[in-house]
Amino acid sequence: MPPAGRCAPVPGAPARLRETVGSEVYGDIVIGPLADLTVVVVDVETTGWLPDDAEITEIGAVRCSGGQLTGEFSSLVRPAGPIPADISSLTGISERMVIGAPLVAPALRAFLAFAGDCILVAHNAPFDLGFLTSASAACGISWPLLPVLDTAVLARLLLGPDDVPDCRLATLAAYFGAQAVPSHRALADAKATAEVLAGLLRLAAGWRPPGNSLLDRLAS
């Protein structure tokens, strides 16, 4: 997963989100109270940064219903090409690990069966969804028209530089005290994203932990 950019506050955004979070979220989601919805948080690991030049090596996802984790999905994926040494060093996924893994087409079908018709959530969604949809198209798999929520976008709307120095997943996970630690492995990062989403939705509803900014904790 590539790093997110610095958080940039949007004037009036928190109030707007507090007013609308019960029925819609910034982006393509517009259906009912979020607490009543089932979402699937997904993360992918890849051999590079662009779908045209790289392949998926791992898909991880968690299903959350009513704020509770209700399912997990994890699959290594065997790419057609090699895994660059620097990427293997970053993710810990080696070519030896993926020798017996499924190719991308069956892995995608298994993930889509897991996701069903749920809302998809990802951190830096254009990256993850870009790889997933590109791989699906290359395999002749029809990608469903699912709504997508990007926690990086939501974080930029709700948090400013006085709260966190950037909107990377690891930074936000630390800010919200997530139990899952982002590690550039798909399932671990999906779990961390789910915890970040929960924290962001609490902020959008008006809750804010006193003195919980990363800067405050670093100064203490």
SSE blueprint:
Layout (H helix, E strand, L loop, with lengths): L12 H8 L17 E9 L9 E10 L2 E9 L8 H7 L12 H12 L3 E4 L2 H15 L8 E3 H8 L10 H7 L10 H19 L9 H6 L1
Parallel strand pairs: 1-4, 4-5
Antiparallel strand pairs: 1-2, 2-3
Helix pairs in contact: 5-7, 6-7
Attribute tags:
single chain; 220 residues; alpha/beta; Nucleotidyltransferase, domain 5; five-stranded mixed beta sheet; 5 strands; globular; disordered C terminus
Quick overview:
The protein has helices at 13-20, 85-91, 104-115, 125-139, 151-158, 169-175, 186-204, 214-219, and strands spanning 38-46, 56-65, 68-76, 119-122, 148-150. It has 220 residues and is of the alpha/beta class.
Question: What does this molecule look like?
Answer:
By secondary structure, the chain is an alpha/beta fold. It has a single domain, classed as Ribonuclease H-like superfamily/Ribonuclease H (Nucleotidyltransferase, domain 5, 2-Layer Sandwich). Helix content is 37%, strand content 16%. The protein has eight helices and five strands; from the N terminus they run αβββααβαβαααα. Strands 3-2-1-4-5 form a five-stranded mixed sheet, sandwiched between helices. β4, α4 and β5 form a beta-alpha-beta unit. α6 crosses α7. It is globular, with a radius of gyration of 17 Å. The N terminus and C terminus are likely disordered.
CATH topology: Nucleotidyltransferase, domain 5
Helix vs. strand class:
alpha/beta
Strands in their spatial order, largest beta sheet: 3-2-1-4-5
The number of distinct structural domains comes to: 1
Mean pLDDT: 83
Strand count, sense and barrel status of the largest sheet are: 5 strands, mixed
